[in-house]
Design goal:
By secondary structure, this protein is α/β, with parallel strands linked by helices. The chain is built from six helices and five strands. Helix 1 packs across helix 2.
């Protein structure tokens, strides 16, 4: 079985996951790191929540994050009236999968410390790091490609920090890859 084939089908599926998370998970937290995927994920929750992000947001801040990103996060907090808590990481994460797993692990630790029972992660590769006991994890963007992230931002006219460009939503798959390559990577990672 293949996943959603068109951008519209992938967007519908991502919104369905966001709606399910809001209905099913008590103590849900949205986790973000100020990248394009995080912005798209929050917007999906805004849509699923009737125009408001109804869950608290944990902003995972790495050392060395550009000042422009911090200003952007403050702007987004005010614009969308987000309930944001900042979790500062003591050290910068590596690149690629190591970065995704490190951020996801830090996010789940923060959710657990906050007493949360559910987490929404914007990274497709983060599921491998999800081992926190008693935490339900929702990942609406697993069906998105890097191109979809950029297209969603453009279609919905979302704010984006000027120093950020969409990255692949699936670790190891270039955003220009065809849909079948992305689905194959998702199957390989156990999502399909």
């Amino acid at each position: 079985m293949t996943g959603p084939c068109t951008f519209e089908e992938r967007e519908t599926e991502a919104l369905r996951v966001a709606e399910s998370a809001l209905k099913e998970a008590a103590g849900l937290y949205a986790v973000m790191a100020a990248g394009p995927e995080s912005i798209v994920m929050l917007h999906l929750f805004k849509r699923a929540g009737g125009g408001k992000v109804t869950v608290p947001v944990l902003f995972i801040q790495q050392p060395g994050l550009p000042a422009g990103r911090l200003k952007f996060m403050d702007k987004l907090r005010r614009l969308w009236r987000l309930d944001i808590s900042v979790v500062r990481l003591p050290e910068r994460q590596g690149g690629g999968d190591e970065k995704v797993y490190g951020l996801a692990s830090a996010a789940l630790d923060a959710v657990s410390r906050a007493g949360g029972a559910g987490a929404v992660l914007p990274w497709a590769g983060g599921r491998a790091a999800v081992t926190g006991p008693g935490i339900d994890v929702y990942m609406p963007l697993t069906v998105f490609t890097g191109d979809d992230v950029g297209r969603y931002i453009t279609t919905h006219r979302l704010p984006r920090p000027s120093d950020v460009t969409p990255e692949p939503a699936v670790s190891g798959v270039h955003p220009d890859a065809d849909g079948e390559a992305v689905r194959e990577k998702l199957r390989e990672l156990g999502y399909m």
